[in-house]
Amino acid sequence: MYASCINEEAIEAENISVILPFINTELGGWPILQGLGWDSSTFNLSRRLLKLTEYSNSVIFNAGTQIDQQNSSIRSIRISQNVLALGDRNYYFNESDVTRAYRQFMRDLALALANDTSMIEDDVNDTYTFEQTIARFVLTAAEQSAQSNKTIRTTISNLSSAINANVSISHIDYSFYFHSV
Fold first, then answer.
1. Is the pTM of this model over 0.85?
2. Which of 65, 72, 82, 123 could, after both became Cys, cross-link 32 (CB 3.0–4.6 A)?
3. CA 82, 88, 91 angle in degrees (round to 5)?
4. Residues 6+ apart with CB under 8 A from 48
5. Cα distance between residue 87 and residue 83, in whole Å
């Protein structure tokens, strides 16, 4: 394994021929790479989150089980926010060297993988704007601590509507997600 990781000649020879099929078939594609060929009507957020979970990547939220604090004989599901790509939400509120470098990283990655580069600049800016929007809803450590005792008691089948009523996220099918994990 180690030898394959340091074999730069083999890595360069493979180029993008290994990663592109993985992105397109396993992960369902990346709109930045597919440009006008991206079909948003086939996008299913719950399925995408589930697929990423298979590769130990939690996006948008983390989920796990824990001993229920009110009844130690049962386990409960704990859902919490995930970390933003830039870590601290404050990075998204002020332009800095970090935010410029982050967008440049997205551009460089897309340029290395894409055939059609005409939409990359717009797509990178749209992606960053989307992350900025998410950052406005991310709680700070102090805010999370203040809500640590906030519990929603419900069944898995009612989880989506219970969460959506409390946090205004309407596109995640938690029932599908937890029954599939």
1. no
2. 123
3. 130
4. 27, 28
5. 6
Residue entry with tokens 């697929």: 51
State the sign of the Cα–Cα–Cα–Cα dihedral 1, 86, 51, 29: negative
Q: How far is CA 17 from CA 1, 13, 14, 50, in A?
A: 19, 9, 6, 25
- pLDDT recorded at residue 107: 93
Residue by residue, DSSP assigns 35-49 as GGG--GGG--HHHHH
SS3 30: coil
Query: Which residue in the block uniquely carries the two structure tokens 């995408």?
Result: 48
Residues 88 and 99: their CA atoms lie apart, in Å, by 11
177: number of Cβ within 10 Å: 21
- In DSSP terms, 87 is beta-bridged to 84
Structural element, H or E, at residue 158: helix 156-167
- In the block, which residue shows the tokens 């001993």? 67
Task: Determine the average pLDDT of the residues in 42-52.
Answer: 83
